[in-house]
């Protein structure tokens, strides 16, 4: 009889531990989703503000052409 009680107690303890792990996993998933949502909100807030500056920098970089010979180029002759 004691053996059955011990076995039942161990089984219950294992089930409880599994339940705790499952709930902890769910909590971490919810926290990660919340953090992701917060980051997206921040990015969406700053996007309109920085869009013009990014375009200006990109166009300046693309349009600023300075032709030069690559350092690895060898002239045959």
From TrEMBL:
InterPro entries cross-referenced by the UniProt entry: V-ATPase_G
Keyword RNA-binding: no
UniProt feature coiled coil, ranges: none
Presence of the UniProt keyword Ion transport in the record: yes
Record-level GO cellular component terms: synaptic vesicle membrane; vacuolar proton-transporting V-type ATPase, V1 domain
GO biological process: synaptic vesicle lumen acidification
Keyword terms of this UniProt record: Hydrogen ion transport, Ion transport, Transport
Gene3D superfamilies, per the entry: 1.20.5.2950
GO molecular function: ATP hydrolysis activity; proton-transporting ATPase activity, rotational mechanism
Subunit and interaction comment: V-ATPase is a heteromultimeric enzyme made up of two complexes: the ATP-hydrolytic V1 complex and the proton translocation V0 complex. The V1 complex consists of three catalytic AB heterodimers that form a heterohexamer, three peripheral stalks each consisting of EG heterodimers, one central rotor including subunits D and F, and the regulatory subunits C and H. The proton translocation complex V0 consists of the proton transport subunit a, a ring of proteolipid subunits c9c'', rotary subunit d, subunits e and f, and the accessory subunits ATP6AP1/Ac45 and ATP6AP2/PRR.
Role played: Subunit of the V1 complex of vacuolar(H+)-ATPase (V-ATPase), a multisubunit enzyme composed of a peripheral complex (V1) that hydrolyzes ATP and a membrane integral complex (V0) that translocates protons. V-ATPase is responsible for acidifying and maintaining the pH of intracellular compartments and in some cell types, is targeted to the plasma membrane, where it is responsible for acidifying the extracellular environment.
Protein family per UniProt: Belongs to the V-ATPase G subunit family.
Designated name of the protein: V-type proton ATPase subunit G
């Amino acid at each position: 009889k004691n053996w059955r009680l011990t076995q039942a107690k161990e089984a219950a303890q294992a089930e409880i531990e599994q339940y705790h792990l499952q709930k902890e996993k769910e909590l971490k998933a919810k926290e990660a989703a919340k953090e992701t949502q917060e980051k997206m909100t921040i990015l969406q807030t700053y996007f309109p503000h920085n869009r013009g500056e990014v375009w200006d920098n990109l166009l300046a970089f693309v349009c600023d052409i300075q032709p030069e010979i690559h350092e690895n180029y060898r002239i045959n002759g």
